[in-house]
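User: For documentation purposes, I need each entry recorded in a consistent format: the amino acid sequence on its own, followed directly by the corresponding structure tokens. There are two entries in this batch. Please keep commentary to a minimum and don't merge the entries.

Assistant: Recorded as requested. Entry 1:
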Amino acid sequence: MAITISANAWTSAGHAINQVYDMLYMMGRDDIAVGVGGEGGILPNATILPDVGGYLPIIEQGNDTSGYCRYRQTIPMGLGGRLDIDSNYGFRKSFLPQGKRQYSPLRQPTAQQVMIKTISSGPTVVFLIGSHTNFALFLLSNPHLKKNVEHIYIMGGGVRSQNPTGCCPKNSTSSCQPQQCGDHGNIFTNYTSNPYAEFNFFMDSFASYQVIHSGIPVTLVPLDATNTIPITEKFFETFEKNQLTYEARYCFKSLKIARDTWFDDQFYTSYFMWDSFMSGIAASIMRKQHNHQGENEFAEMEYINITVVTSNMPYGISDGSNPFFDGRTTPKFNLERNGVHSGHVQTKLRDPFCIVKNGRGRCQDGYTKEVAGPGGVPVLVAVRAKPNRNASSLLDKEFFASFLDVLNQRENAGIFNFSTQFPYFREELHKPDFRGKHLGKNVVFDMDMSAGDFIALIYLLKLPVEEINLKAITVSPTGWANAATIDSVYDLLHMMGRDDIPVGLGDVFAMNQSDPIFSAVGDCKYNKVIPQGSGGFLDSDTLYGLSRSLPRSPRRYTAENSVKFGAPRDTDHPELRQPLALEVWESVVKSLDPGSKVTILTNGPLTNIAKIVLAGKNMTNAIQDIIVVGGHINHGNTDKGNVINIPSNRFAELNMFLDPLAAKIVLSSELNITLIPLGIQRKVSAFPTILKRLHLTRKTPETIFVKRLLSRLQHLQKTHPRYQHMDIFLGEILGAVVLAGDYSVLKSTYDVENIKVTASRYESEDGQITIDEKQGKSVEVLENLDHLAYYDVFANRLSDEKQSAVVGSFDEQRRLWSTPSK
């Protein structure tokens, strides 16, 4: 058995891989190989290089892992979407035990490596319960191994299905407008453009076509069947009373929080048995040999001739939507010039081609369409769930009973959860006692959770509270890391004994990038430049494989919510709700003594700060000044910026580019601003120098952690081309040092410049800073400092034994929880 992770749909690769490792550890199955990602690409001539990571649909895949979110933008990024899946609503870290297996850069087996090794070993059955990119790439790259794949079981698609959600009640008034009611598909964010597709097939329709038309026998469990097995109230109540194993408890917790946070009161008619139903059907079919008709206990089956729609008629057009054909003399993969793949391909959420005024959307990308004749293939399809053979049971479907029986079996049950993993486990918050101390300058740190930001945070926490009083942290998921990485911020604060510091979560989209109709989804116009794999989100979300070495904090992101904050209902623990960035800022303002103000240090895109500026004078009057680590002042068109993967944008700095409108709002405001631009950051970005200085200092837990992280970044930069930009993160430490630095030691000098930020919506110029003596905003710009003194100040502060870590690492925490408390 092996597992590969679909990295271009509902979850982020870094969070997913560690969650799978922890689930396997709970179940005592560390023997199961797990693959994710890969750094290979597809060349313009359609050559598929080894280890393509599956981060992008095949139609968007180039030679690296950055790229546009053509299909994925239909998936919510925050609540109810990838944030909640990445964290499993907050239960992942509170419940699952932590074993020794974890993601590590360049050591993690890739999806293709695991597939090739597993399928090469002999006859294999494949379950697909996500997008089909990984497996389609395997089939295209390894045709000689196709013979080893005996059968493919797929959850997804909708053949004759009619969506039961979004319908008007029978007794409703004429004002009720049906939404996706009756559609074949289930893409609730996109039904006005595409009412035909189901998420798994839509995420990479070309990949799904390759799988369905591979010639390998396929059994499909589509929406046709899953729509007939909604989670019922009786099933929920029975499940609540039957949690005899750790896995049953974990599954029920997940189901309950999904219900409690559901956006309306129709959970029991809108939430279905999806992937688990497919697994049950497949297991039942496989128990019988030569079961060509797919006889099983749980679903009625039927052979249907289907295909997967990958483009929209008319075929043979060239409208800029289809990279397989547009601008090419020979179609990619030798596709037929006027064939089924040659039409318009949906480009984005609200593709104008797809929208019909006062009508149903006309795009069908990802539609599992029933066809007659040679254009389709016969597929064994589950058409409806079977009723429970026990007529007296509270459970109306046969699969419900089996699901609960299997989940609660003692055989092969989970070994422990996080709390029972340790004989003397105890959760405790570490908060300092500042009584009798005169606290220093009030500071709020705004970070995008890059590697450099975590080092800057450690530095801020090491500064004497009499000098710097770090009152709060706001995190911006519009930069280098996904929103669920906020857990690593909580863990670092716990390590340093600062569980008193509130952490606010910012918007998941750059300004004007969320969808105006459905704000939970939106565009990736700017953060598409961040690689999905190595050197990008995969590494930031795992802190380059070191996040799990931090001690585990009792605080973490949770999906718990409250009516007080606009939720449809209170969950079990509304007090654990994750506060938003603007709420944390408001609480900081209210906590200030009369006449006191706050300095904001911001290390990422300026999304959160722009929101504060737009909130009005009541929110900005408390700001003393803002130190912005970012921006690039180009002198004479000679100094290039650092925006990766957009060659046409030569002079912008990444923090400005990732949200140019926010940068324009902040840097044209009336606030006092100090800019620490790219030029001066580059002067203090030498790995050998800073590591040499750290090696000469005393070993504190924070020095050890920072050395491990910086050494890893340096090694990766030397080892693999995907990591050439690692010195970006060294420059991000500078703001924290300058904030509290002694000017006489650092010998820092400043100049005043009148600047403007470009936010034109043209990616070739967005985020660029120009000097405008007449209309520009006057800001202080850090021009120079003694870089050797800077390294000394940084290293000496980290090695200071004052305000050092309370719990130095997860290993130390593990030892504490393995011995009785004194």
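Entry 2:
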Amino acid sequence: DETSQWILAKNPDKKERLSTVLYNLAEALRVTSVHIGPIMPNTPVKICAQLGITEDSLSTWDSIKEWGKLPVGLKVSRKEIIFPRIEEDKVDSAVPQNSQKKEEQKQEVKNETKEEDANLISIEDFAKVELRIAQVLEAEKVKGADKLLKLQIQIGDERRQIVAGIAQHYTPEELVGKKIVTVTNLKPAKLRGIESQGMLLAASDKDSLTLVTVDRDIKSGAKVK
């Protein structure tokens, strides 16, 4: 406390000591302003302005390697308070609001997690889908339907008929003999009055579509795992 500026200022005999203390405080603020620059880029500018620093060279990392770079005789100006004191009553009133915001954010995260979980299936659910290799025996267009093809396929010893919306991407001739991946345990459905006894798999991207096939020869009826 003996070197506190408000105590030294009361004693005329301590004027020189007071000047030294105030200089060291100002120099400490200058050094601090350089350190906080990367995370608080606007604050060092305000500090230097109040300290009367106009030379950019006094705000560099090299300038703080040596203590006492601050010129003597600079005029310190009194401007806005850079770090205003936070009143306790304001802090107390802000706490409930912050707590409420945190709870709302937690709830949003929970809701997003629930939505994501709703789109997930278990391995048991996936195992219920039966995928097998089928070979296309015949293919023809469905009359009155620009997008549909009727396929006769062989799945092991079983022959089936499926209807697929791939007519705009494949001709019947392209499909005959091709081995494709099919879902074989779907309930039969009728498309344009024609029964479809399964579904083939295909990948699509905007206007393009390609069938899911195998890269090596394998018997029809083979199970896809």
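Summary note for entry 2:
The first helix runs from residue 5 to 8.
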